[in-house]
Amino acid sequence: MKKNILIVLSLILFTCFNAFANKVKLDSYYIGFKKINIKSEQTSEAFPVALVYPTNESSKIVKFGHFKMNLSVGANIADGKFPLIIVSHGSGESHLGHKSIAFELVKNGYIVGMPLHPNNNFRNNSAEGTIQNWKNRPLHIKATINSILSNNKILNHINVDKIGIVGHSAGGYTALAAAGGKADTSHIINLCINNPKINEPFCGLVKENKLPSESILNIGDKRIKALVLMAPVGILFKSENALSNINIPTFLLRAEKDQELTEPYQSTVIAQNYKNKELLIDCTVPNAGHYSFITPFPDSIKGELGIIAQDPKGFDRKMFHKVLSSDIANFFDDVLKLKMNEGFGAKSCLVN
Questions:
Q1: 3-state secondary structure 155-202
Q2: What ranges make up the beta strands (E) of 74-132?
Q3: How far apart are CA 336 and CA 98, in angstroms?
Q4: Nearest CA to 137 among 88, 180, 92?
Q5: Quick one: which H or E segment has residue 323?
Q6: Tens digit of pLDDT per residue, the chain (352 long)?
Q7: Number of neighbouring beta carbons within 10 Å of residue 2
Q8: Are 281 and 251 within 8 A, CB to CB?
Q9: CA 235 to CA 232: how far, in whole Å?
Q10: Is residue 49 within 8 Å of residue 115, measured between CB atoms?
């Protein structure tokens, strides 16, 4: 979200992807990798999607720019049908920023698509906080699902009745909106104007009088069967019936020491307005910061990144991601693969 982050984020994310990928030889699969180029019919925007998936074809060292990674690029997908998970990154971030979660999902038999939201990423963040960005983000998710399912070579390996979304920060908003959440920017305006000490990243446009007050009636994608929300933007769903159309299992993770989003205006709003509380797992990650949900960076370059690589004192991001990734995989196993007999228990957070 911060401008100084964007300068070095591209370099760092590929470095981290290299370090993580070189370590990973899955119990049953290698990690397959394809890049898909997509154009949304509704927004007319083109953007790439990184697709990772289970494969039986051995990996090899490949170069991405100046970096080498151990992946099975372009490999065939392993036999069988797998659930599909789409990961929506936060504002100004990268589609590879949650690769630790994506890799764990592949390990557990999932295909994962990671779109780079156009004009709201580390390369180009010109749309951050704009009305068009709030409208377009959920449409990027729909376009990603449509494109993946229109490719028969991929479709033949996907269980189309088992699709889930993982979203961080603005990606959490995106997940809810794609599932049918009714957003309203008037709540952002009221929050920023009535709370001058609030430092939410999207308040800048409000203070410049550049964000119009508008309702966004998102048409829910019924193909989406489950959500994971990590430190999500929730203020746009403050209207009483904003989430009345969402009736699917949702795993909500708050950051106890979120330095970007202020409670009770974000996750609390979502929890309060979620109608079917039996389908909501609402928990808080002790001592976590807003960016703690991003895949850990090497110690050697944390200083260059600033806030995006920093966690509250005493928080171990590397250890957390081992548990977080497992929790998310187990959650989807329960609600998509119906392994309910094992019983889901979140280990990465304290249930509220």
A1: HCCEEEEEEEEEEECHHHHHHHHHCCCEEECHHHHHHHHHCCCCCCCC
A2: 82-88, 111-115
A3: 20
A4: 88
A5: helix 317-335
A6: 544 444 444 444 444 444 444 444 445 789 999 999 999 999 999 999 999 999 999 888 776 544 456 789 999 999 999 999 999 999 999 998 999 999 999 999 999 999 999 999 999 999 999 999 999 999 999 999 999 999 999 999 999 999 999 999 999 999 999 999 999 999 999 999 999 888 899 999 999 999 999 999 999 999 999 999 999 999 999 999 999 999 999 999 999 999 999 999 999 999 999 999 999 999 999 999 999 999 998 777 788 888 999 999 999 999 999 999 999 999 999 999 887 545 667 899 887 7
A7: 16
A8: yes
A9: 9
A10: yes
CATH code for position 276: 3.40.50.1820
Identify the residue whose tokens are 């928990």. Answer: 283
For the chain, the residue count is 352
Burial class (CB in 10 A: 0-12, 13-18, 19+), 13: buried
Q: Residue 9 sits in which domain range?
A: 3-351
The domain tally of the chain equals: 1
From the number of C-beta atoms within 10 Å of its C-beta (0-12, 13-18, 19+), residue 217 rates as: exposed
Instruction: Give the Cα separation of 104 and 31 in Å (integer).
Output: 10
Cα distance between residue 247 and residue 78, in whole Å: 32
Residue 220: how many other CB atoms lie within 10 Å? 18
- Give dist(CA 324, CA 85) in Å, integer: 16
